Amino acid sequence: MSKNEEKETKRGKNGKKNGKKEEKSGKMSKENEEKMGEIEENLEKILEKIEIEEKKTPEQLEAARIVKEAKLAAKKAEEYKKLDEQIEEHVKIFQDPNVDFHGKMQQLIDIPANIKHALLDKKRSERLFSSIPLEMFETAFDPANERYATSRPVLIHVISFIVQCTAPEVHKKFKPVMANIVASVAPRDNKAEMNTVVYNDMTTIVCTWADERGDGKCIYDLLRHLTTHFNAQKMNLEVGQFLLCVRMLIQKVYMIAPIERLSAESFDNRMWTIGILSIVRRLLQERPEKFTKDLRQLLWDVISSMTRVAGIGWFNIDKSFAKLVIQLNHTEMQLALIDAHNPDILQFNRNLRILEMYTTAICEGDLYGDSEQSIIPHTVGESTRYLLNFWTECFLQKIELPTQLALSIFHFAVYIFVHEELKITDDKVRKNFGNCALSTAFTILEQATEADLKGEIGQLFSDMLERLAEFENLNDQVPIFLMRFLDKIRMADDYETWKGKVIDVECCLMDLRGRIDWYSKKTLKEADGYLRRFTEPEKHELNHHVFKIFNELPRVN
Fold first, then answer.
1. CA 337, CA 355: separation in Å to the nearest integer?
2. Among 300, 311, 303, 217, which Cα is nearest to 256's?
3. How far apart are CA 478 and CA 508, in angstroms?
4. Among candidates 280, 296, 412, 437, which has minimal Cα distance to 358?
5. With 60 as the cut, is the pLDDT of residue 27 above it?
6. Alpha helices, DSSP H only, in 56-121?
7. What pLDDT score was predicted for residue 243?
8. pTM for the whole structure
9. Which residue has the higher pLDDT, 260 or 527?
10. Within 10 A of 151 (CB to CB), how many other CB atoms are there?
11. What is the pLDDT of residues 404-454, one digit of tens each?
12. What pLDDT digit, counting tens, does each position of 54-89 carry?
C-alpha cells in the first residue's frame, strides 16, 4: 500500500470516529434540551402557584391553612391509630404463652424497623416495653447462647431507647442483664459488628442504671471495651462521640466511687486509663485549635475529669503528655479569661482544676523531678502568675467578676498563700493581695448558702482568717467582714461550733494587734451595729472574745 493510500485510510477511520463523537454529542445536546424543557415547565408551574397564592384573599388563605392543618391532623391521627394497633399486637404476642420464644424474639428485634419511634411518647413506650418479659433479654445476652449474638446491637439500641423513654419502675426491670450486656460489646472476637452507635447506646444504659454498690465493675468494663474500640479507629476516630461517651462514664465513676469504696469493689483502672490517655495525647498533638469550640471544650472536660478519678498518676504515665497538657492548659486558661467582662467560666474551671492538681503534685513531690520536666514547674508558675495578676488587675480596675469565677480564683489564691512552699513574687500582687481577698470574700459571703458555709467555702474562710495577719496590706473593712462572717455562719452551725468560730476570729484579731491598717473608727462603729442581730448568749461570747479587743484598739481615723 502506498503512503497516500495509508493516509486516506487513516482519514477515513478518523472521519468515522468524529462521526460517532458528533452523534454522541447530538444525543447529549438533545437530552440536555429535554431536561431544560422539564425544568422550565416545572418553574412555570411553581410561578403559576405563587401567582395564584398572591391573588387569594386573606379569607381564602385562612381557609386553605385550616384545610391543610386538618389534613395533617387526620394523617397524624391515622399514624397514631396504626401505632396503637401495632403496640397492642406486640403486647399480645409478648404476653401470649402459646407464642414460641423465637417468635417473640423476632417481634422484639423488629421493633426499630416496624414501629415509628418518633411517635412513641412516654405512655405508649411504657405500655409497649413493660410487656416484654425479662427472660427475653436474659436469653439474648446469655454468653453461652450464641443464637442471637448478631442481633445484640439492635437489642442494645432498643434497651437504650427504653431507659430514656420510660420511668425507672419500667426500665429497671431489665437491669439484671446489665453485666451481660456490657460483656457482649467486647470488641475482640465478637460475632456482631461493633460500631460507635453501639457504644453510645451502652454508655446511655450504664450511666442510667449504675447507681448501686457493685455497679462500678460495669462502668470499668465498658470503659475498657470502649477505649479499645476507639483506639482501633486510628485516623478515622469519631472524636465527638469518643469524648461524649468517655465524659459521661468518667462522671459516673466519680459519682459512684464513694459507694464503691464501702464494698469489696475498688477503683479498677486497668487498661482504660491508658486507652484514654493514648487517644487524648493524639488529639492534643494534632493541635486542638483545629477543632470546633464544642469539641475543644469536650476534650478539656475529659482531661479535667481525669484529674478527679485518676489524679496526677494518670498524667505521670507519659512524661511528654504531662508537659503537653500543662503547656496547652496555660493557653486555654488565657483564652477563657481573654475578656474580663465576659469570661468563659466553665472552661476556666476545667483548666483551673488541672492547674490545682499540678500545683499540689509539685508541693507534695508527686511529679517527675528530673531536668527534662523542669518545664512543668515553670509553666505552673507562669499560669499562677497570670491568674493572680488577672485577679489583681480586675480589683484595681473595679471590674466585677461573676461570683463563681471570683470564688474559684479566691480559692486558688488562698491555697497558694497558705502553702509555705509557694511564694508570691510579683510586687503588685503581693501588695494588693489582702485587699483583693477581702473584696472577693465579701462578695462570696453575700452569696453563700448555709450548705456552702458548712462545706468548702466555710473552710476557705477559716484558712483566710488563720493567715490574715500575713497579708502585706489590708483595709479598714476587716471588722465589718468579721461580724458579717460570724452573723452568717451562725445560721449554718450549731451553737457550740459557732463558738469555735468566735475563738478563731479572736485568734485572728490577736495576730493583727500592732497593725492599724485593718480598721478605723467608722468601721469599728459599724461593726458594733451588728451586735443587735445576735441573741443574748451570742452577744456575751462576742463581747468577751471580739469586742473586748475592738475596745482596746488605738483609735485611728
1. 15
2. 217
3. 11
4. 412
5. no
6. 58-95, 101-109, 111-114
7. 95
8. 0.80
9. 527
10. 15
11. 999 999 999 998 888 766 788 889 999 999 999 999 999 999 999 888 888
12. 666 777 667 767 777 777 777 888 888 999 999 999
Could you identify the residue written with the cell 451586735? Answer: 531
Return the C-alpha torsion angle 408, 414, 420, 424, nearest 10. 80
Contact 213, 259 (CB under 8 A): yes
For 174-200, b/e burial (b = at least 16 CB within 10 A) is bbebbebbbebbebeebebebebebbb
Residue 52: CA atoms inside 13 Å, Cβ hemisphere, count?
Answer: 8
Nearest in space to 460 (alpha carbons), one of 517, 416, 499: 416
User: What's the average model confidence in pLDDT over 293-298?
Assistant: 90
* Cell numbers that stand for 322 in this block: 504531662
Interatomic CA distance for residues 188 and 145, integer angstroms: 17
Residues recorded for the chain: 557
Set of cell numbers at residue 556:
485611728
Look at residue 291 and tell me whether its pLDDT is greater than 50.
Answer: yes
Residues contacting 297, CB < 8 A, separation 6+: 346, 347, 350
Grid cell, residue 211, equals 447507681
